[in-house]
From TrEMBL, chain A:
<keyword id="KW-0492">Microsome</keyword>
<keyword id="KW-0597">Phosphoprotein</keyword>
<feature type="domain" description="Aldehyde dehydrogenase">
    <location>
        <begin position="7"/>
        <end position="426"/>
    </location>
</feature>
<dbReference type="GO" id="GO:0005789">
    <property type="term" value="C:endoplasmic reticulum membrane"/>
</dbReference>
<keyword id="KW-0276">Fatty acid metabolism</keyword>
<dbReference type="GO" id="GO:0004028">
    <property type="term" value="F:3-chloroallyl aldehyde dehydrogenase activity"/>
</dbReference>
<feature type="active site">
    <location>
        <position position="244"/>
    </location>
</feature>
<dbReference type="GO" id="GO:0006081">
    <property type="term" value="P:aldehyde metabolic process"/>
</dbReference>
<feature type="active site">
    <location>
        <position position="210"/>
    </location>
</feature>
UniProtKB/TrEMBL annotation, chain B:
<dbReference type="InterPro" id="IPR016162">
    <property type="entry name" value="Ald_DH_N"/>
</dbReference>
<dbReference type="InterPro" id="IPR012394">
    <property type="entry name" value="Aldehyde_DH_NAD(P)"/>
</dbReference>
<dbReference type="InterPro" id="IPR015590">
    <property type="entry name" value="Aldehyde_DH_dom"/>
</dbReference>
<dbReference type="InterPro" id="IPR016161">
    <property type="entry name" value="Ald_DH/histidinol_DH"/>
</dbReference>
<dbReference type="InterPro" id="IPR029510">
    <property type="entry name" value="Ald_DH_CS_GLU"/>
</dbReference>
<dbReference type="Pfam" id="PF00171">
    <property type="entry name" value="Aldedh"/>
</dbReference>
<protein>
    <recommendedName>
        <fullName>Aldehyde dehydrogenase</fullName>
    </recommendedName>
</protein>
<dbReference type="GO" id="GO:0006081">
    <property type="term" value="P:aldehyde metabolic process"/>
</dbReference>
<dbReference type="InterPro" id="IPR016163">
    <property type="entry name" value="Ald_DH_C"/>
</dbReference>
Amino acid sequence: MSREQLVVERTRKAFLTGSTKPLKFRIQQLQCLLRFITERRKDIADAVHKDLYKSEHGTELFETLGLEGDIQLAIEKVWEWAAPRPVEKTLLTISDEVYIRPEPLGVVLIIGAWNYPWAVTLKPLVGAIAAGNAAVIKPSEISSHSAKLMEDLLPLYLDKDLYPVVTGGVTETQELLKQRFDHIFYTGNCTVGKLVMQAAAQHLTPVSLELGGKSPCFIDKNCDLNVACRRITWGKFVNCGQTCIAPDYILCEASIQSRVVEEIRKCIKEFYTEDPKTFKDYGRIVNQRHFRRVVALMEGSTVALGGDRDESQCYIAPTVLKDVTGTSTVMTEEIFGPVLPIITVSGLDEAIGFINEREKPLVVYVFSHDKKLIRRVITETSSGALLANDCLVHATVSALPFGGVGNSGMGCYQGRHGFDRLSHLRSCLIKKLNMEAVNSMRYPPHTAKKMGWVRFFLFNQVSVCRLRRMALLTLVTVVAGTVWLKYFTSNCRNTLSDTGGRSV
Amino acid sequence: LSRQAVQRAREAFQSGRTRPLEFRLQQLHALQRMITEKETEIATALKQDINRVRYDTPLLELIGIENEIKLAIDRMAQWAAPRPVEKNVLTISDEVYIQPEPLGVVLIIGAWNYPWALTLLPLVGAIAAGNAAVVKPSELSEYSSLLLRALLSRYLDKELYPVVTGGVAETQDLLRLRFDHVFFTGGSTTGKLVMEAAAQHLTPVTLELGGKSPCYIDKDCEIRVACRRITWGKFVNCGQTCIAPDYILCEPSIQSQVVDCIRLTLLEFYGADPKCSPDYGRIINQRHFNRIMSLMEGYTPVVGGQSDSSQCYIAPTVLKDVPPHSRLMQEEIFGPVLPIVTVSDMDDAIRFVNEREKPLALYIFCNDKKAVKRMIEETTSGGVTVNDVMMHYTLSSLPFGGVGHSGMGRYHGKHTFDQLSHQRACLIRSLKMESVNLARYPPQDRRRARRDKLNKIRRLN
């Protein structure tokens, strides 16, 4: 038996003991996870620095802060999320209990990614724990320091049988994927995403795939370019462009291209100084393979700013390419690096057409003051999410589902969505053994008369809410009518007595 | 041929004509007209396919479809509207909402046991959500497939909602093409193949599969009523229902009573010879007839057991003291054969259910609320109905679907709409209030630097 098989078996055994069912247990585990993040902040920051050359502040801002918020939200809300959810009844079920009961799925496999090794691996874990599942965690081997730290330290805080960490590379992941899980949560690229879903199909395991794509960023020529470019620059070059929701490329009219380049130049200088290479808040490409990949993408395009690189450090300067076309090399795949191509279009129509010719991205960004224009982009394109006038921040709103569509993924998480995604929402109808007469119309022998009753009851399924509303309205009308009548008749009596007589 | 139909559907979708709600409403009204105007033709087709009982067609299929259409017409504007969500401090002045959007072209693969409900219910949701849909009815219900193809092209937009008929080869052809969602109802084996094919295109799937739905009868409940309800649910459509109670679990002390009650009820429903009852159906074809007959091999039924292969007739049959590891207990019966397996008590029943694959439905007949609660909490299944069978299917507010081997995804009512939509997160900010953002920009210690500068200035003053 392989190591992976043993781990999964042990995890399933631990799940079957039922220890994750009580909410108190789940909350306690979440509190331990929170303690882990806060107590080991320095260790985590060190690991991320070694993996991605990210500064301590950067790690806090982009990894642990969001994670802490998520954990706290889950701790606060798990009682609400896990409670039975009553649903709308009908006339026939008016005296029954009808509700949806969230239940754990079982053993969830979480395959993390290397670009935000902590956020991307542990955020789904929060949902998994809150929903009462066990989880096998497989961090990415590319962010090897973070993976090692997770393997060493997580078992010291969480139940090590319920939430084991399995490290390794492609072979170990393939072995894991042969095992049976109750849900697989994968973050990464499309190619591997297909393999994950294929493996899951063998066991009829549902999947959540958080993939990527080329997220377009349209800049309206009439907007405040200074602010727009600052936000785009920030969103693009954070983590050295290695963010699944980074604006991948810009679409704008030719008339503003030079200004856009200028504004970005100013922002880069403001954020990363004249020499980003020596500045601690500017990151590195994760490894040489990706370094070479990103450099190769720049081939054939005109560099408007940046472009310098240093393979020994996996350093690529913040780079902007101009006059890029739809067929340039840089437009053939998701860049996932600090290279920002600008493609000129004649206007919004062409921009929308350009976006729709391509795979549905994870995000569509649009910068404009014009609400109608923004509305058009929403109605005429599709993407995981749409963010107007800023970058990345939709991922911080826990009430919004985070996920892709089409090639950018399936399933969503964050906050309650993560809880629901990793639960089975079981429909429950509790009836009684009395009132059998009502059922008789469904039993054979069938007659036309019985069918008439069936049609009446089933066909006119009136919702109880509507009934209640109608009853209330009737009551109000009756009361109002009575009051008015009383007032009217008493007034009449007064009037008549005033005039001192009755008609004969 | 199917490639062309899919291509045309995609082009029709991309033309944008499914976007306006008026168009979707108009299509749903047309579908509603189709059901009411063609009820007789549909009933005839079902009689030829599966010898469907005259009254079961409206009861089990058409009324449900009509209700779904009415609900969708009534609520579509509400379902399709932007859904505002809770903001946080940073987004307090922004527009934050979820916008439901069409996915694109949905493939709906139907099943033969309820050929109309199982293709049209998903279609209603697909249309309401603004998608195009390619409908592939099951070839085993041949007459219904051909009628569906003729009718849909007459009542609905031909390009947006084509019907592709055919067998295994045609289905495999279809599955090689790219869709934005595949909605499959059928068996687990084919379900795996569907999901595998969908994986090639990263297409999300809804799989409504099956399994053995257990039915536990507590010894202290009104066994007569319980058995009447179970008998109805089991033998409707000749047991060929995905949520039919597959087998009974009860204590040995009440087993004979259960058998007697079922026998009495069968007499009530179908008379002394169910073969002559106009209300008792037939098995869909010879292959399934043989399959079910072979499951019974080696057992002596306590009720029924008669069969007539020329008519694909199997009498309502009950078997008692069935061993848990018999062939009868290994696969979904999908026929009018009801095994009773004895268990020592409710705990034993819970253990029995949990040792097996998660079923589509769990039925519990029991008056003790606490015991019912415990059984629900200690097991899992797609859905649960307590003290009746199948009725959770009829409430559109309850999501209908499986878990584990009984399926993934869910539908009915708004759930179909949501399942066949993309819930797009939208955050509309303004380009003002840039000062609020300053803290996030590098250099990270810029705030400290600014504070230091301010302090320096203050000290100088």
